[in-house]
Amino acid sequence: MYRAGVLYRLASPSRVAGPIRARGSLSSVSWMGRSSRDSSLPSPLIRRHQSSAASSVKHEQFMNGSSSIYIEQMYQSWQRDPTSVHVSWDAYFKNVEAGCGPGQAFQAPPLNSSPSLRLVTETMTAVTSSKESINNVADHLKVQLLIRSYQTRGHNIADLDPLGINSADLDDTVPPELELAFYGLSDADLDRQFLLPPTTYIGGDEKILTLREIVNRLKSIYCNKTGIEYMHLTNFEQQEWIRKKFEAPKVTELSHDQKKVLFKRLIRSTKFEEFLAKKWPSEKRFGLEGCEVLIPAIKQVIDTSSSLGVDSVVIGMPHRGRLNVLANVCRQPLSTILSQFSTLEPADEGSGDVKYHLGVCIERLNRQSQRNIKIAVVANPSHLEAVDPVVMGKVRAEAFYAGDNKHDRTMAILMHGDAAFSGQGVVMETFNLDDLPSYTTHGAIHLVVNNQIGFTTDPRFSRSSPYCTDVGRVVGCPIFHVNVDDPEAVMHVCSVASEWRKTFKRDVIIDLVCYRRHGHNELDEPMFTQPLMYQKIKGTKPVLDIYQKQIIQEGVANEQYVKDELTKYGQIMEDAYENAQKVTFVRNRDWLDSPWDDFFKKRDPLKIPSTGIEEDKLTHIIDKFSSVPEGFALHRGLERTLKGRKQMQADDSVDWSIGEALAFGSLLMEGTHVRLSGQDVERGTFSHRHHVLHDQKEDIKVYNPLNNLAESQAAYTVCNSSLSEYAVLGFELGYSMVDPNSLVIWEAQFGDFSNTAQCIIDQFISSGQSKWIRQSGLVMLLPHGYEGMGPEHSSCRPERFLQMCNEDDMMDASKAAFDGTFEAQQLHDTNWIVANCTTPANICHLLRRQVTMPFRKPSVVMTPKSLLRHPLARSPISDFLPGSKFQRVIPEKNISNPSNVQRVVFCTGKVYYDLVAARKHVGKENEVALARVEQLAPFPYDLVLEECTKYPQAELVWAQEEHKNMGAWTFVQPRFNSLMATSSQPGSGRVISYAGRLPSASPATGNKYTHYQEQKEMLSKTLDVAKSSLEGFKA
Ligand SMILES: Cc1ncc(C[n+]2csc(CCOP(=O)(O)OP(=O)(O)O)c2C)c(N)n1
Ligand SMILES: [Mg+2]
């Protein structure tokens, strides 16, 4: 939101207190359980009440942990409207606020004139505190607490396991607060009548029920086939909403038509697996048997969401049931799916992936809602849960481009296995993005296929939390556990979850408690490890059989109907099988989750357009980047910084921050959306960037110069992320998959930390195009460099990124054509780009090239730390202007007579500036040529050869500050040597030698002295001088 050129940052809507929010609290925060981070502090008046009220309440006999929360809510309700609670509570709270001590606050309620209430309070006397009436009211309070206890803990004894062996929360005991005896009640009280409190809907229109009926209704709602976990929510309105959705009488009933739809979906789900098992008995397919209800469940979520306005759903899911989802949810043609079981040759690019990892994107009419809907299943690796943040990023980007800021139309569905959901840390990292303004997707719907096993491991040995879904409690998700043998209960839960998401725009979890009929895959023997469970499974009927019997008994369908439906689907499968036999090739393209239909059509794949920037645009960007609007209270230090930026332009020598700003600013002005995300990226870890300026006098008033360049510019999103690499990098990758006409960048705090996101790097970024022919132009900025900051602040491990390049390390120069298209061809063929730039102009061109390239490639860029302010790491304006471009190699420019050169030293990154200074120190400026390899991969063979050829007599040396088993050495060595061995240019046949640190286990020393010694050693080896000649040298 812009106001007078100033960006006012808004808190996310979910952080704003809802209409019903606690005004104060009766208790201390710990008494309340988890405090809501967005609740405002109570006023001093309320606080005074709290302490006295808290102590008297706490000492009441009937108080316990969960009832205290209940009373807390009653109190809040009473504060808003004293008539909203039972008269007994009204009297009680009045007395508490008047300062009555424990045991004194309770008072028998006045006799109510309403006939119904009189019924209950017949035996009570009005104001006198006769023992009998006190007991009666006390019993009412107890019953209210009992109701509250069922709402809170009923799920703990719900009948959730279709096998009837385990308790889904791993605890077979009955919580004492669910027993009448806990309250001093007994069976003798069952026929007494009680007035229902306002915090329950079990009565429907009835206000009074017998205790027997109350308990029966509570049991059937909270302890039957659905376990509802929602009392951990800290928002009263949300709790009320859920209560209503489950407690109101008959709320879960389905119509006959709905039952039939459900039945048909169960047929599809069940018979699909059966068919595959029959045709390919020895193929792994990770079938859904034991959780066939997953298909109707997802469809119910999609139907309901679609009717509530969603028109794009992005699904992330693991192996289990994936083929079934592709067939029966996405409606990927069955013959295309079945052809994956053949051993046909792929007809297009890519190395492909196993069939249960593939993605799809399909748009079709949703029959139930009669609205079009796009459904994408994102391709994923075996690495469980890794796809979660990718899906979220994709959803965020889709909504961003569609202007769907509140995600009314774009939504994520994530599926999980029970073991993975509770075991993998990325789940929590992804949840933690939920409420962050630049990352929220306004609620995802999670479905857990909780088959109560992970490969061979029993849940009792794979998690420490009661439920596999407990991670969701941290971010305030309601959690609906449901026994899959009651498919109608599953449908209800799915509808409620979809409505919840629509209403509150927050995540929700559906825990499908099920079983796995076969082994981990169909070829595995489960009896080795789970003998008792599998004996039970053998005797358990598939849900289709159970439901078929049910609908016949209920008269919803007859035998003939059932038979017809089964035959119909059987025929569909047979026809598809026949068609699949006619398929002669498979196409990786059929499995793209993010097709960029028009992007490639318009472009020449062998032409890399220019990346220069017109001078007036450049001047405008620097002007804007160096100023703030009138009245903005800028920090004094930043005033100097901004002035300095302007001065650098005047001096024709601009620094890294301007190089970056020119790249972003020019792209934005050309209509390209730029997103830069990562830890502390707004200021920049090393304080060089300052893209978000903070007013020193007004909270949350910020100014983002690059978002104020021009009316028609594209949006610039620069956002500090949560302290996560795995989820945030995954998120940005997902974001980059949506629109190729954007520049999406993730920056690590230090490159060293990027390895906590290794799975995203290995499984998605480096290999995504090869496995799934999916391109991404994502840039990773990884601060890197040996500056004595120790083993965890020195190296982004460039060797690893280089090792993952798909390029051959052997070049036959006699056969290669180093012509005008060589660069483009290499870029086209590479899986990613690895670069280490040394000048502001070069980083600017590299970033711009990401967008001007006719295809998309991820870029891994080692970025500087001290170089950000190094007086030599500057660029003249001319290096940015039209005609200039990214320099893959920056040659030596200061040597006029190449024949004097005895050594030509190749290096990459910041070490270049150390070498320049040391070379000067030892007076070897005419004998040692220094060439910078700015793009390591794809390796610039053509330019390297040119550089070697310039100095045919010189020794070739590779200098690096990383240890010998690290850095680029092992990558460049075979490339140099094969190039020189096969070249016919002067100086061919030379081999390159190494100058740098010795091999090491640790990336860098933690000792400053050792660091300087090593650095000197490296410089002396590189320049071929004694170490002593570098005495007094300081880089
Ligand atoms: C990150 C990761 N670690 C290990 C594995 C190997 N693995 C494949 S499936 C599986 C068990 C998964 O259990 P669960 O999440 O409950 O799903 P289920 O197979 O029961 O549907 C394991 C350990 C993996 N795929 N990913
Ligand atoms: Mg499992």
Automatic annotation (TrEMBL):
Reaction catalysed by this enzyme: N(6)-[(R)-lipoyl]-L-lysyl-[protein] + 2-oxoglutarate + H(+) = N(6)-[(R)-S(8)-succinyldihydrolipoyl]-L-lysyl-[protein] + CO2
Protein localization: Mitochondrion matrix
Source domain of life: Eukaryota
GO terms for biological process, alphabetical: glycolytic process; tricarboxylic acid cycle
EC number of the protein: 1.2.4.2
Keyword tRNA-binding: no
Assigned keywords, A-Z: Glycolysis, Magnesium, Metal-binding, Mitochondrion, Oxidoreductase, Thiamine pyrophosphate, Transit peptide
Chief location: mitochondrion
A GO cellular component annotation in the UniProt record: oxoglutarate dehydrogenase complex
Positions of the Transketolase-like pyrimidine-binding domain: 654-870
Region feature (Disordered): 31-58
UniProt cofactor(s): Mg(2+); thiamine diphosphate
Entry keyword annotation includes Hydrolase: no
A molecular-function term among this protein's GO annotations: metal ion binding
Signal sequence extent: none
InterPro entries with a match to the protein in the record: 2-oxogl_dehyd_N, 2oxoglutarate_DH_E1, DH_E1, KGD_C_sf, ODO-1/KGD_C, THDP-binding, Transketolase-like_Pyr-bd
Pfam families from the UniProt entry: 2-oxogl_dehyd_N, E1_dh, OxoGdeHyase_C, Transket_pyr
Family: Belongs to the alpha-ketoglutarate dehydrogenase family.
Known function: The 2-oxoglutarate dehydrogenase complex catalyzes the overall conversion of 2-oxoglutarate to succinyl-CoA and CO(2). It contains multiple copies of three enzymatic components: 2-oxoglutarate dehydrogenase (E1), dihydrolipoamide succinyltransferase (E2) and lipoamide dehydrogenase (E3).
Protein's name according to its UniProt entry: 2-oxoglutarate dehydrogenase, mitochondrial
Naturally occurring in which organism (per UniProt): Pristionchus fissidentatus
Organism placement in taxonomy: Eukaryota, Metazoa, Ecdysozoa, Nematoda, Chromadorea
